[in-house]
Amino acid sequence: MNSNTLRSLSLALLVSVAAPVAAAPAPVTELGGSSGSSSVERLERMLEARNQMQIDMQRQLDQMASELDELRGTVERNSYELNQMLERQRDLYREIDTLRTAKPAPVPVTTPETLESTETYSTDQSENTEYDAAVNLILKEKNYAGATEAFNAFLAKYPESIYTPNAHYWLGQLYFSKSELDAAKKHFTAVSQFAKSRKRADALLKLGIIAQRQGDTAGAKTLFQSVVKEYPGTTTANQAEKELKK
User: Fold this and answer.
1) From which residue to which does any coiled coil extend (predicted)?
2) Could you tell me the CA-to-CA distances from 7 to 2, 4, 28, 58, 204 in Å, in that order?
């Protein structure tokens, strides 16, 4: 073969080999492939984890707040009981000192005026227990209906108790809060008969307010003036003065 023929054959072979290569399609890569999808999923998982952490932290904070409220309530109850115990202890010491220094005298007849001035606690433990239970229905349990029933039962069972003026006072407050003015008036009037009672001033003030609400302006004025005159300088007297200025 001559050189021209060889050159022609070589060219034909090159064309036949290159043709399939040129015809093969170029590889295509999808936009937003698996790499981008993985990043989004990872971000979503991170956000979910953060949200769950915030929820868990809020739940823990709520639980701690609840436990703190419960602890505060326990401290307040313990403080009240301790103060009550200390007050009775002081009263007992005062009573002992009085008995040591007092001269023998005839036993006085128990009257509303002398009842609370001679004693501040009962020697009957069951009487003390039942009175405290009735008070706790108000201060601790907020069971006002139960307290009303308990104080009425207490007065029926212990009509000459040293706690009589206090029991009447609590009943007056309970009925007053329900706007049962006639019932409240009855019990506040009973308290006012105990001249030495520490509840008497407030009972007179409440009687004045009841008279005012029932349209007895003159009676209310007389009661307020009694508070100002008998208990000058006290908070109750100041309240009575405000009522007189209305």
Assistant:
1) 43-74
2) 9, 5, 38, 86, 136
